[in-house]
Task: inverse folding
């Protein structure tokens, strides 16, 4: 009778062990099922988050020397987070006027005055970002250079012009603050002046064929509380150019207007210089026209340029190759005023142009006035 009792106990223990195993298997199946999409076809894998390295386009040129106190790369958003200042940098580093120079609602966002050369180079090569979420369309051409038309999800278009690099493919959907490219001065309208961002706003499909209907400066103020620069244009009586931009013994015309192209000049002009040994000190540069000043700093083609506009007579003179300026945008000068200095050690030639109603003319006949 003892053997059958032992077998019964053994069977009972085996049944209990089998039940525990069955329950464990069912529980494991249930866990796997709940971690799937509900159909058992996909199992979610939980793993530690992976930080991906930030990739940069191969076309990005070397960055200027770092300047520690400049907030380049920061993105400024409005309180809602839906809109971002179009340049990834501290807005206090830039300036813009209420109206574009041609009277339209666009804004040219430029580096403010008072920056060193290294700071200027960094500020004018900062990344530009999407103003809001939308689709980035490449809008490049001979006048505006490389650019985008951001078709915002809010129903408005945002036009970016003169960029040096485009980093987002045509048709890419972007979010507010996402990098699009880099500031520059591409295009015939900007290739000889300071790098800046030309920015325009208008309802969908209206900007390209008509001036922007929304004032960009007012829009930046409304969203971010950023003020534009009030730069009144003073009236200057009509005047015609006259005299030389510098008065130094031995100074002569090294490149005549008719020979500008043969000498590889980017635009028709004359070049002043010294056929022999030049002076070993900086030379004062004088205004040759009564008018209003525009300083164009550290351009690639010409170095620093000073432009003097006389709107009443539709004349403008542009003196290029300076290494220091003694005037600022909006200053009124008279013929003979000292406006800057020319260092022949850095640039042996001074470039001189006269525009008559927007057309470059030979300045030779004005030099003896």
Result:
């Amino acid at each position: 009778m003892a053997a059958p009792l032992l077998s019964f106990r053994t069977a009972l223990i085996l049944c209990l062990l089998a039940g525990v195993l069955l329950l464990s298997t069912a529980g494991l199946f249930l866990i796997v099922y709940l971690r799937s999409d509900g159909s058992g076809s996909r199992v979610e894998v939980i793993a530690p988050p992976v930080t991906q390295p930030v990739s940069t386009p191969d076309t990005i040129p070397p960055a200027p020397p770092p300047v520690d106190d400049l907030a380049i790369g920061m993105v400024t958003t409005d309180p809602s987070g839906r809109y971002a200042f179009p340049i990834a940098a501290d807005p206090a580093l830039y300036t813009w006027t209420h109206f574009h120079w041609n009277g339209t609602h666009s804004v040219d966002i430029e580096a403010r005055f008072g920056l060193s050369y290294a700071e200027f180079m960094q500020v004018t090569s900062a990344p530009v970002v999407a103003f809001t979420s939308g689709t980035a369309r490449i809008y490049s051409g001979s006048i505006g250079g490389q650019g985008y038309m951001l078709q915002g999800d809010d129903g408005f278009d945002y036009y970016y012009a003169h960029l040096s690099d485009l980093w987002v493919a045509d048709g890419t959907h972007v979010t507010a603050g996402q990098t699009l490219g880099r500031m520059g001065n591409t295009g015939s309208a900007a290739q000889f002046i300071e790098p800046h961002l030309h920015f325009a706003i208008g309802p969908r499909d209206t900007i390209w064929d008509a001036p922007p209907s929304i004032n960009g400066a007012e829009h930046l103020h409304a969203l971010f509380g950023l003020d534009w620069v009030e730069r009144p244009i003073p009236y200057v009586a009509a005047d015609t150019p006259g005299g030389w931009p510098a008065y130094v013994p031995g100074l002569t015309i090294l490149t005549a207007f008719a020979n500008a192209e043969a000498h590889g000049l980017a635009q028709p002009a004359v070049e002043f210089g010294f056929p022999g040994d030049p002076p070993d000190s900086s030379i004062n540069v004088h205004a040759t026209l009564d008018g209003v000043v525009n300083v164009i700093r550290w351009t690639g083609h010409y170095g620093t340029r000073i432009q003097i506009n006389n709107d009443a007579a539709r004349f403008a003179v542009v003196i290029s190759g300076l290494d220091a300026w003694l005037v600022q945008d909006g200053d009124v000068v008279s013929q003979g005023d000292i406006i800057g200095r020319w260092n022949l050690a850095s640039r042996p030639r001074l470039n001189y142009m006269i525009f008559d109603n927007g057309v470059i003319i030979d300045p030779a006949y004005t030099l003896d006035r």
User: Anything to note?
Assistant: Confidence is low (pLDDT under 50) at residues 1-67.
